[in-house]
Amino acid sequence: MGTQQLNLTPAGQAPLGVYRxxxxxxxxxxADARSLVLRVPAELSERFHYKPGQFLSFRVPYEGxxxxxxxxxxxxxxxxxxxxVTVKRVEGGRVSNWMNQRVQAGDWLEVLPxxxxxxxxxxHQTASDSDIVLFGxxxxxxPVFSILKSALRTSQRRxxxxxxxxxxxxxxxxxxxxxxxxxxxxxxEVIHVLDSLQGYLTTEEVRHLVRGHAGAEFFICGPGPxxxxxxxxxxxxxxxxxxxxxxxxxxxxxxxELLAQEVEARAAAAGSACEVLAVELDGQLHEITCRPGDTxxxxxxxxxxxxxxxxxxxxxxACMCRVQEGETLLARNDVLSTQELAEGWTLACQSRPTxxxxxxxxxx
Length: 364
Description:
Pfam families: FAD_binding_6, Fer2, NAD_binding_1. This is 3-ketosteroid-9-alpha-hydroxylase. The protein is of the alpha/beta class. Helices cover about 25% and strands about 30% of the residues. The strands form four sheets. A six-stranded antiparallel sheet has the order 4-3-6-1-2-5, with helices on one face. A five-stranded parallel sheet has the order 9-8-7-10-11, with helices on both faces. α5 packs across α6 (about 225-235).
């Protein structure tokens, strides 16, 4: 392994926007997955407050590079005292294998604040009595489990979890799920689908499993083909796309690849000069100027605007915003769907203005 063992202390300096958190506990979930419980100091409690279903981004040194990876929190802010991420080994995965082999309680990790839009909406204005149907595939159970626990604690909604795995030994959170199902038998139904016994989940099986849950709110996370099958089946049943939430993670390019992409993107936008960038943030409108070639996020930061952001590499979606006026050029996108792009959403960290005036709105 080329990854270095971190030996970080609270007094050490981390890059701007990155924090150092201590690993309070390591839990071996299965033979190839473990959870890391993180201790958040009181002065960072507000910064690390999170919504059910969000993730944390970790920065790990590897052979002279600083690799960034996102891992969803399996903990619930409504049930658990400390945040917990769960990491499953990926064949050839540099960071996931290091997390499973090397990290121990007492180690310090570089972490970015919570991010992500794959969340249970708990606001009073949008709270719903509709059912919640959760689909988790493999380690995709992690954000789904967070949502499940919070929904049980904060609502009276019926919940159904369909959890697909390779075999019984690969079922993460097996005992916790059994206990929750036993304690909440009238509201929670857990169905396990094992490839070794039933094969891969099919569109027809999805249709059968969601029978009686029309109009539910659906959350899907897992391997790409698994998510595609579930989403296709739900859309085929006429379920509203706005009620189907899909979480897709990809590993970002290495830093040298990102640098090459940055140079290319700046060159592509160099001929465009934005005179006014209007930014609606937290109900207030700010008009700022842009330096040629800067991304929307870079311009906002230079102007002192505290807009939401996390990885700044185009794969976490924390800086999603909607272009309400003008034109922009999106260099890299591993987050936004075709529908979201059509609705005007972009990633501030990867998008550059290409018209004289651009107006953005960040979600409240």
